Amino acid sequence: MLVLSRHIDESIMIGDDVVITVVDIRGDKVRLGIEAPQAIPVHRQEVYEAIKRENQKAGQIQPGEVRNVRRPQ
Questions:
Q1: Domain for residue 68, yes or no?
Q2: Spatial contact of 40 and 32, defined as CB atoms under 8 Å apart
Q3: Does the pLDDT at position 65 exceed 70?
Q4: Using one digit for the tens of pLDDT, what is the confidence trace for 31-56?
Q5: Alpha-carbon gap, residue 28 to 39, rounded angstroms
Q6: Model's pTM, two decimal places?
């Protein structure tokens, strides 16, 4: 893990397309601004893990288990 120190309004570059900027620091909380192309999803870790779990569950559903699902019109 790379550990960097930054002050408010200072940034970190990830590759050529992602910029992370320290927006605010209050007590033990740091607010970050993230600029990334729309093609790169950005989520908090707990949200990312929830999405991943739901996708895994959806991938395990067997065709016979799906009921009352309507096709888009």
A1: no
A2: no
A3: no
A4: 999 999 999 999 999 999 999 999 98
A5: 31
A6: 0.72
What is the predicted pLDDT for the residue at 73?
A: 67
Strands 29-35 and 11-14: unpaired
According to the model, what pLDDT value does residue 58 have? 82
Residue 1, in any domain of the structure? no
Instruction: Indicate the residue type of 55.
Output: N
* Within-domain flag for 66: no
Long-range own/partner contacts, residues 43-49 (CB < 8 A, 24 or more apart) = none
- Asked whether residue 25 is assigned to any structural domain, the reply reads yes
- The residue-averaged pLDDT of 16-42 equals 97
Chain center to CA of 67: 31
Which residue range is the domain that position 38 belongs to?
Answer: 11-61
Q: Could you give the number of structural domains in the chain?
A: 1
Total residues found in the chain within this entry: 73
Contact (Cβ atoms closer than 8 angstroms) between residue 9 and residue 30: no
